[in-house]
Write a structure and sequence with these properties.
Layout (H helix, E strand, L loop, with lengths): L2 E5 L3 H13 L3 E5 L2 H10 L4 E5 L7 H11 L4 E6 L4 H9 L4 E4 L4 H31 L1 E2 L2 E2 L3 H14 L5 E4 L6 H10 L8 E5 L5 H9 E2 L11 E2 L1 H4 L4 E5 L6 H13 L1 E2 L8 E2 L3 E6 L3 H7 L4 H7 L2 E4 L10 H16 L4 E2 L1 H9 L5 H15 L4 E2 L6 H4 L3 H7 L9 H19 L4 H7 L4 H10 L3 H10 L1
Parallel strand pairs: 1-2, 1-3, 3-4, 4-5, 8-15, 8-16, 9-12, 12-15, 17-18
Antiparallel strand pairs: 6-7, 10-11, 13-14
Helix pairs in contact: 2-3, 6-7, 10-12, 13-15, 18-19, 19-20
Length: 464
């Protein structure tokens, strides 16, 4: 039986409403002001509170504020003979579920209370589902039962309920887009679009037209008006991946959109209001970039209202067995196979360093499932750099000489060596080389200029 508290300083109205809801099989308690209602709520939980706004000692708005602080799951419906747009706005800002003006139709009030109870039931069910997911060690396609991942899951649940901008950081392959999708799917925006764009994959001009749209005739090839991704994601979420690759000019334009909540399509004179939540992601140190002047400091603080830093897989190795099982099941389902994994293969996978993080593990399992012909995945189906991995040997190779080393110079040479090797293996193809190095093409070109080897790429292509 639903439990309702009716709060009004008019005794006659309390008695009428008590009779009405008892006939609807509600458990009913009545209070003459907010203070008494809070005492009742403290003594026994309620599903919904129906309260007048104007009352002595504690009015309905103050009661609503107290209820939301103490019992956020309780439904609250306000009623008043002195309604105004301002009062209603204040009530909804504080979390009122609905609002009805006196004198009201009793049948209409019944419908409002019933809808409020349905909403509360859905919220409770959704929270229970999220809690069960977290206890099973997964949210969406994010898998992990380590303490670090449980903290991430709890953060996802928390930020999903608010509208603040989120910055997801972490190495390549840690699952930043999965986190963004999980936040969206658990938010009130879940039934609206989730739109993702890689900011490092576009030139400055193309990125502007993709994000903000353009008007017909604004540039060559603009044969029709086109809606931008901010407008397309209206009411939903836009995910800006690799935001650290955005040019300074685009950073200025994005900052204005975040501040004004309006976009101006390329070639347009008027602005368009947008309501899309922004989640950004990067594998770069934006704080340091802001300090160095290569990323706008004001934009950094605007997008990092809520930061979520994803740990690399090597820092949560206890999650590897669950991830292996998850990916084996995923790719077996896709291929129609029924495979296990041999103990030796599992041991090799668990001992490996996984510099490419979860993405590298996923691709490794996909390959193994595709190649395996027996009932269990064998070590032979793993890449040789994984089966030959020896952490003791690697540690010895990285021992320091007695007289020390020039670390920065050593790292510069190591970086240049890897870039040149990637170009050699791909015949100078910068796109494929960037894929090997797991970085955006734009970042690779920056390294080519940094080490003065851009011409080497062209020479390799011509010799090929």
């Amino acid at each position: 039986m639903p439990n309702i508290i009716i709060v009004d300083d008019e005794q006659s109205l309390r008695q009428v409403l008590e009779l009405v809801f008892r006939e609807e099989s509600y458990t009913v308690r009545t209070a003459f002001n907010g203070i008494q209602a809070l005492e009742m709520l403290e003594a026994e939980p309620a599903d919904v509170i129906l309260t007048d706004v104007r009352m002595p000692d504690m009015d309905g708005i103050e009661l609503l504020r107290n209820v939301r602080e103490r019992n956020p799951d309780v439904g609250v419906v306000l009623m008043t003979a002195h309604s105004s747009v301002e009062t209603a706005r204040d009530a909804f800002k504080l979390g009122a579920d609905d609002f009805i003006e006196k004198p009201f139709d009793v049948e209409e009030l019944k419908v409002i209370i019933a809808k409020t109870l349905e909403k509360q039931a859905l919220v409770s069910e959704n929270r229970a589902f999220k809690r069960a997911q977290r206890e099973r060690g997964s949210i969406g396609n994010i898998v992990g039962s380590s303490a670090k991942m449980h903290a991430i899951f709890q953060m996802i649940e928390t930020v999903a309920e608010v509208q603040s901008t989120v910055l997801v950081t972490g190495e390549s392959g840690t699952g930043k887009e999965l986190v963004a999708r999980a936040i969206h799917s658990m938010s009130p925006r879940a039934d609206k679009p989730f739109i993702s764009i890689n900011c490092g994959a576009f030139t400055e001009t193309l990125l502007e037209s993709e994000l903000f749209g353009y008007k017909k005739g604004s540039f060559t090839g603009a044969n029709t008006d086109r809606k931008g991704l901010f407008e397309a994601a209206n009411g939903g979420t836009i995910f800006l991946d690799e935001i650290g690759e955005m040019s300074p000019a685009m950073q200025v334009k994005l900052l204005r959109v975040l501040q004004e909540r309006r976009v101006r399509p390329v070639g347009a004179h008027d602005e368009i209001p947008v309501d899309s939540r922004v989640i950004a992601a990067t594998n770069r140190d934006l704080k340091r970039m802001a300090e160095d002047g290569t990323f706008r400091e004001d934009l950094f603080y605007r997008i990092s209202v809520i930061p979520i830093d994803l740990p690399p897989l090597r820092d949560r190795k206890e999650d590897i067995p669950a991830l292996i099982e998850h990916f084996v099941r995923k790719f077996c389902d896709q291929s129609g196979k029924d495979l296990g994994i041999s103990p030796r293969t599992a041991q090799i996978l668990e001992n490996y360093a996984w510099h490419g993080n979860v993405r590298e593990l996923e691709h490794t399992i996909e390959r193994a499932v595709a190649l395996e012909r027996s009932a269990e995945i064998q070590p032979e189906q793993l890449p040789t750099h994984i089966t030959n991995y020896n952490p003791d040997r690697i540690r010895s190779e990285f021992s320091l000489p007695d007289d020390g080393i020039d670390l920065m110079s050593h790292l510069e040479n190591l970086e240049k060596t890897y870039v040149m090797e990637a170009l050699r293996q791909t015949g100078g193809n910068q796109t494929r080389a960037a894929e090997l190095l797991q970085m955006p093409v734009r970042s690779l070109r920056h390294l080519l200029d940094k080490h003065s080897i851009r011409s080497l790429s062209a020479q390799m292509r011509s010799s090929d």
